[in-house]
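tool=predict chain=A
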Amino acid sequence: MLMLPVTFLPATGLVLLAIWLATRLANDLRALWLVGLLFCLAVQLLLLGTRFGYGVESILSIQHLTGVLIPPLGYLAFKNPRLSLRTAFHLLPIVVIGCVILFAVHVVDAVLALITFAYAGGLLIALLQDKDELFSWAPFRFSPALRFGLWATLATLLVSGATDAVIAADFLTTGGARISGIVASASLVSLALLAVGLILLLRRGVSQKPTSTSPSDQALIQKLSNEIVKKELFRDPDLTLSRLSKRLALPTREISQAVNRGTNLNVSQFVNNMRIAAACDMLTTSDASITRAMLEAGFYTKSNFNREFRRVTGQSPTEWRAAAHSKELDFRNK
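tool=predict ok
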């Protein structure tokens, strides 16, 4: 009976996710680099399973070439730039690895490790500088998923780079005798990191109050609030930081940093606070359904609405409405 390598299962999941992202969300989230990253990861897992599951060592060079695509795609997936000469620069790692395979194949894993760590470093710097600006191209409702995906990608690059470095060292010391064990260990570490990431995501708490703010930040936040509330921009589920930036004629980074410093929220949460306020008002002053209140407030999915509603109010929409009606009855009976 033919046995399928365990890596084929996550590879299939990544392909399905990429297809879903490229078709179902094509109009809402134009993220072709992210689709390319998912496909490339799937191909790499298929090659990995074929090589170690069936002993097909002849695909090693192909595995190196597809592997070197993952770091630049991981970097570009969250930057999401347009095609240009600048983005073409990220093809350089393929050329480098191709030359190494032809002329110095014994150091290919070391070079892969250096390239991977370089892109992981670039992604980490971009993340630490300004998370909101990094996702300014995407509607706010996708920010939580993109933020989690970015950390998962960063962890994947670090594990991949470390694995390549250990394999390179193993070739120098044992001639590659421990490669299977190294790859298996790296897979377990990746799964552990993913599990930890999911736990942290689920345990994400309510934001604390801001520690300090400046008059200029307060003025910008007030200007931003007025623009969003008076024109009800929050009702647009496709609202992005880039669009707010154009309306205020201010850089995206200036807006996001002022909101971060002044409210201890990211811009997505800041806008969602207004959406929740609108939903609460509708739930307490009308007989509208929770679904209608969700859509009118600018939310796209129930999961995001329920999560943000509980973050802001500490209750579910149903609990909030019941408590509001109870308070109204108590007030009338007095």
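The CA atoms of residues 156 and 191 lie 10 Å apart. Residues 201-211 have pLDDT under 50 and may be disordered.
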